[in-house]
Amino acid sequence: MKSQEIRAKFLEFFKEKSHKIVPSAPMVIKDDPTLMFTNAGMNQFKEFFLGNSVPKYNRVADTQKCLRVSGKHNDLEEVGKDTYHHTMFEMLGNWSFGDPARPAVGYFKAEAIAWAWEFLTEVCKIDKDSLYVTVFEGSKDADQLGQDKEALELWSKIVAKDRILFGNKKDNFWEMGDQGPCGPCSEIHVDIRSAEEKAKVSGAALVNQDHPQVVEIWNLVFMQYNRKANGQLEALPSRHVDTGMGFERLCMVMQGVQSNYDTDVFTPIIREIETITNTKYGKDEDINIAIRVIADHIRAVSFSIADGQLPSNTGAGYVIRRILRRAIRYGFTFLNTKEPFMFQLVKVLSETMGKSFPELKDQRQLIENVVKEEEHSFLKTLDQGLLLLDNIVAENKDKKIDGRKAFELYDTFGFPIDLTALILSERGYELDEKGFETAMKEQKDRSRSASEVSKEDWIVLAEDPQQEFVGYDNLETSVKIVKYRKV
Ligand code: ATP
Ligand code: MG
Ligand code: MG
Ligand code: MG
Fold first, then answer.
1. Is this complex scored with an ipTM above 0.85?
2. Which of 96, 246, 265, 291 could potentially form a cystine with 106 if both were Cys, beta carbons 3.0 to 4.6 Å apart?
3. Whose CA is closest to atom 16 on ligand 1?
4. Ramachandran angles phi, psi of 485, nearest 5°
5. How far is the CA of 171 from the centre of ligand 3 (A)?
């Protein structure tokens, strides 16, 4: 089954169960100071769970564009190295927003569990013997929560006993934050190893162990408590269901492949990378990682730009710039790409995903231009920066690199700190991040005091013949402030 069809099947399934199919919220969040990017399907429904607004529909399903590169969910380090964590991914989800005044409109554990199982085993026809489910085991801490007996009973009716596992608070109890709605969850994991491998070790022992072929696909959260400011839990007046399933992981399972990157979500992009860079995926692990990183990162960057977030030097824009530069460096070092090339991947991405996400098609030209320009400007200094880094490493006696040197790479060559750390870690070196922060702060202080004394020398003014053009304020920023010196 093609990925398009899998996505459609999910939405159809829940539509038939009286769910309203809603569009994905933007991946870039503009109006929430607590979150830069959508990192889960529930984000756009947060206000309903908090009781601050009333939903128009009580049953909703969608596919949500998510980005997990900062804050509580940061998978960036894993991406490319493993085969199932992405920066940008789609989270399929179904929700029930309970309403105490109209209890009949919502649903809770019984339906959520039965439908998830029905969808996976009957619609997707995934072998029951490759699935494991988890149930919250309870906690002995201040909350003194008991085992999620309700979920256990419901699962016991449909799943063999040895396939039901118990999980701790970290994996099986979801909280929105220090306060607010929370509750136990049940996850579904799938074991896609060969029969031979399965005979050696039980899949049950590999659940939640970062095994690339025993992966979590769906998380069913049952919101039934509210955590008060004093940390105590109270029962919520209306209970909600919040589920999230990794779309690319589901495609991996359904397409019978061992990696998300071997699904048709990624293969057209990977073929294009192979063609452009004259390399082959699947032969050499360094090259494989580089190709996976680039295939992943072009999606994150393109979707962000389509949402209106351009790369820049601050906030969300800098997150995007960092992701792009990370990919450019992987290409440069492992695929030998010395010219901009990632922008050419936008075409195939918009062809494969544009039907479900028309913003990619509509904004294709802009995305290509921005990516190309970013590649161009970073490639100009990347070479020299890497040379400097080589020298720093060569001169270094211990395995820790001075943060001030990393600051020079940042300041002069545009190397984001995490990129420098990544390159160093590839060589077995560590970075002194504190030193970097100190150097950064010192520079900020210097430029603040410098701007105080030099106010008279530097002004922002356009095209005054009395003034001599001396350059842009900062080549790094997307907003270029033109500076003129008084003559
Ligand atoms: P994992 O344990 O694999 O990191 P998670 O427990 O952090 O996943 P949830 O927050 O429960 O993930 O999100 C719901 C679902 O979204 C997961 O079951 C998984 O299928 C998918 N998912 C989570 N993170 C990623 C990611 N970085 N890339 C692709 N899919 C993901
Ligand atoms: Mg995770
Ligand atoms: Mg997990
Ligand atoms: Mg989970």
1. yes
2. 96
3. 246
4. -100, 140
5. 6
